[in-house]
Design a protein that fits this description.
Elements lengths: L9 H6 L7 E4 L3 E5 L9 E5 L14 H18 L4 E5 L15 E6 L15 H16 L1
Helix pairs in contact: 2-3
Protein name: HIT domain-containing protein
Pfam families: HIT
């Protein structure tokens, strides 16, 4: 049986401003920030403010605003890093690889011939994340 949503999860804390993140976008319904263990340069997480563990228990009304921002961020990261493409990843429950139980979509710029790094692999330096976040914010603003 699927567990209940836990408001103590790390993304809920980020949404409440209790722990820091490198934010690139925020509106009434959605926040986007840098993944601290990126699978490639510019790896961004797009997170709805509405609480759900994942796609299995989310209110369908969540997906419109969420995917509107996923598209905005995908276009922005492709531009910011001059990428060849963009991969979206989204995991549901431990068997799928989910590690943080608040619905989110991974947006990862891709480059011809460059494989993704492992999921939840190495921590990136904060200054690198800050620089990349600045590039994405600039691309979103233009
Ligand atoms: P998932 O397996 O889809 O639940 O992935 C969770 C993602 O969150 C992983 O890619 C982690 O690198 C990332 N992550 C974990 N903690 C943080 C954090 N504090 N700030 C940003 N990203 C995080």
């Amino acid at each position: 049986m699927t567990q209940a949503y836990d408001p103590g999860n790390i993304f809920a804390k980020i949404l409440r401003g209790e722990i820091p993140s490198h934010r690139v976008y925020e509106d009434d319904a959605v926040v986007a920030f840098m993944d601290v263990m990126p699978q490639g340069i510019g790896h961004t997480l797009v997170v709805p403010k509405a609480p759900s563990r994942n796609i299995l228990d989310a209110d369908p009304a969540t997906f419109g605003p969420l995917f509107a921002v996923v598209q905005k961020v995908a276009v922005a990261v492709k531009k910011a890093f001059n990428a060849d493409g963009v991969t979206l990843l989204q995991f549901n429950e431990p068997a799928s690889g989910q590690t943080v139980y608040h619905l989110h979509v991974h947006v990862v710029p891709r480059f011809e011939g460059v494989p993704l790094k492992p999921h939840s692999g190495q921590m990136e330096k904060p200054e690198v994340l800050a620089e990349n976040a600045g590039k994405i914010r600039a691309a979103l603003g233009s």
